[in-house]
């Protein structure tokens, strides 16, 4: 296979009206255009205030020169792959409609071979129209509010309303690629793992397209490149004696061990044998949930981590390798072993890096803000979204839980488990424990609470009682392990006040300390994790209660630490020493050898 990035600068045109360009037409000359980097959100790149809050259609276009082999070899399949386009996308190649896609957080692709192999041209013009409008029929949902008072608003004026607390960034957020395969090719690989008395079991299923006549060879290589197991055919089991298991960061002296599953498909053609090849990182691990514990490879695992957002200055929600690696270095510095992809599926590259770094992931659907009305709308549409997300989760060892975030019920949870029975399912709730519709059917209960922030303002002294009561009520009712999936307080960096007051760094730190006292007591019993809200400050819609975004991050939006970051760093490394090492090994030495933490906690 060959890859050709179609990124860098695209032409961008914003228009309230949709429509079709048609063959031979271009966005150039259709109106003012703006050079637009891909991947990125379009909102913060320019200086146009109207573009930042724009709702409607935007048009992207770029012309790409293709290698000669791609356009002349009819045995080559040419594919256009779009990492994500928020929210609804229509795609043309050389003015010909090729694909449409709904949903702003998952990849999609189209076979464009016939369009680029049908004439003498060695280039292809890619045009993508994207509409970011959110309605009760979208995930996440929203509403369009039309302002009809002409004494206050121009004719036709409307605003986009949402029921979530992050900015609705839009555009081509993830890489756009052109790639090739043979006409008979590997389409998909599903891997599940288990362990039997030290022997790793890797069950695989391979899906091929293009022909029914082919051979498949499968090999599993260790990190030294040695073949440890091999097989043939579309389905099978590889057995790995004395397997190296995939362990989370700080849970083992050699975490995140990944094998390489190599699949080679060979088919016979008139020109001779042709092969397609794919190498897939595979971690061998088990996940199990009991009444009081979350077990990875049979050992208790305690989530100490963060909630995140795909959000940064200028690029908005656009994928950026430098930013991603910085974030992972901060996670390791912090001693975090997990995060939740609030409030949507993240880029595949993020999940793949989690596997490499040993970070456990709670992967969340984009259903934030779904109420009763939206639940009725989406009752018949949820299958497709979960199917696509299952496709992303088939081979990721760090992905230990699938998380739903609508008003959930028994049917939806059962359907999710049927799509991916290998992982526990949870959803995030802040509702009344007695009336909750989903808690009886999930594997782990995730509870959000913001004591002494959204009520009892400034009264930190009430947190221990209220938090202890929360945990006791949920556990007494459902007898399932609990994760404190959100907690925190806003802090404007550089604001200091002692005694602590709201929005100061001291208040954020003191509030977390009050939570930690109760968490330390309850984690001895049935609390299996804590995820602070949030990893970093992030942008929201403008509102009187939001000072240039949500300030609950323990890092600023520019990834600089607030006082709370140092508090959590000390706590998380202490948790790693207390919970992941056998009792005899606990003591003066911190697990992260490259960090100068040698004191006894």
From TrEMBL:
Inhibited by L-aspartic acid. Residues 184-285 form the Glycoside hydrolase family 2 immunoglobulin-like beta-sandwich domain. Keywords: Glycosidase, Hydrolase, Lysosome. Signal peptide: none annotated. InterPro entries: Beta-gal/glucu_dom_sf, Galactose-bd-like_sf, GH, Glyco_hydro_2, Glyco_hydro_2_cat, Glyco_hydro_2_CS, Glyco_hydro_2_N, Ig-like_fold. Residues 50-182 form the Glycosyl hydrolases family 2 sugar binding domain. Homotetramer. This is Beta-glucuronidase. It comes from Neovison vison.
């Amino acid at each position: 296979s060959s890859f050709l990035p179609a990124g860098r600068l695209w032409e961008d045109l914003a228009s309230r009206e949709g429509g079709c360009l048609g063959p031979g037409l271009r966005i150039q000359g259709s109106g003012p255009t703006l050079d637009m980097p891909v991947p990125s959100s379009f909102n913060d790149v320019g200086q146009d205030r109207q573009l930042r809050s724009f709702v409607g259609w935007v048009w992207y276009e770029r012309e790409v020169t293709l290698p000669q082999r791609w356009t002349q070899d009819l045995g080559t399949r040419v594919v256009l792959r779009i990492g994500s386009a928020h929210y609804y996308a229509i795609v043309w190649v050389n003015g010909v409609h090729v694909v449409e896609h709904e949903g702003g957080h998952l990849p999609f692709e189209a076979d464009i071979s016939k369009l680029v192999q049908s004439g003498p041209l060695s280039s292809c013009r890619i045009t993508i129209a994207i509409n970011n409008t959110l309605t009760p029929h979208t995930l996440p949902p929203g509403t369009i509010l039309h302002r009809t008072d002409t004494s206050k608003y121009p004719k036709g004026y409307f605003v986009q309303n949402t029921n979530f607390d992050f900015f609705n960034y839009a555009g081509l957020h993830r890489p756009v690629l052109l790639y090739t395969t043979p006409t008979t090719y590997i389409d998909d690989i599903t891997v599940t793992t288990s362990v039997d008395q030290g022997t790793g079991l890797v069950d695989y299923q391979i899906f091929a397209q293009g022909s029914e006549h082919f051979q498949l060879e499968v090999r599993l290589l260790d990190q030294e490149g040695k073949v440890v197991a091999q097989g043939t055919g579309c389905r099978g089991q590889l057995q790995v004696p004395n397997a190296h298991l995939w362990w989370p960061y700080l849970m083992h002296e050699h975490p995140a061990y990944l094998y390489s599953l190599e699949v080679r498909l060979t088919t016979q053609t008139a020109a001779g044998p042709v092969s397609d090849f794919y190498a897939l990182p595979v971690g061998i691990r088990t996940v199990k949930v009991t009444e009081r514990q979350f077990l990875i490879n049979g050992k208790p695992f305690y989530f100490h981590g963060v909630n995140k957002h795909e959000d940064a200055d200028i690029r908005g929600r656009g994928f950026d390798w430098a930013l991603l690696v910085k974030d992972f270095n901060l996670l390791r510095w912090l001693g975090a072993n997990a995060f939740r992809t609030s409030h949507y599926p993240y880029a595949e590259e993020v999940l793949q890096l989690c596997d490499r770094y040993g970070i456990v992931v709670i992967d969340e659907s984009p259903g934030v803000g779904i109420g009763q009305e939206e639940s009725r709308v989406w009752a018949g549409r949820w299958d497709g979204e979960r199917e696509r997300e299952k496709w992303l989760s088939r081979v990721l060892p760090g992905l230990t839980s699938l998380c739903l975030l609508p008003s959930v019920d028994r049917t939806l949870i059962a359907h999710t488990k049927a799509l991916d029975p290998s992982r526990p399912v949870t959803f995030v709730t802040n509702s009344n424990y007695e009336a909750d519709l989903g808690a009886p059917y999930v594997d782990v209960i995730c509870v959000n609470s913001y004591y002494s922030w959204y009520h009892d303002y400034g009264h930190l002294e009430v947190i221990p009682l209220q938090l202890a009561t929360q945990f006791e009520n949920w556990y007494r009712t459902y007898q399932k392990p609990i994760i404190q999936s959100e907690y925190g307080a806003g802090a404007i960096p550089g604001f200091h006040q002692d005694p602590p007051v709201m929005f100061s760094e001291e208040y954020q730190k003191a509030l977390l300390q009050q939570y930690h006292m109760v968490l330390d007591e309850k984690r001895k019993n049935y609390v299996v994790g804590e995820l602070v809200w949030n990893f970093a400050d992030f942008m929201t819609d403008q509102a009187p209660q939001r000072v240039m975004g949500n300030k609950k991050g323990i890092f600023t939006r520019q990834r600089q630490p607030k006082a709370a970051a140092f508090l959590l760093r000390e706590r998380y490394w202490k948790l790693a020493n207390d919970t992941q090492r056998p009792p005899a090994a606990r003591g003066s030495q911190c697990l992260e050898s490259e960090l100068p933490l040698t004191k006894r906690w």
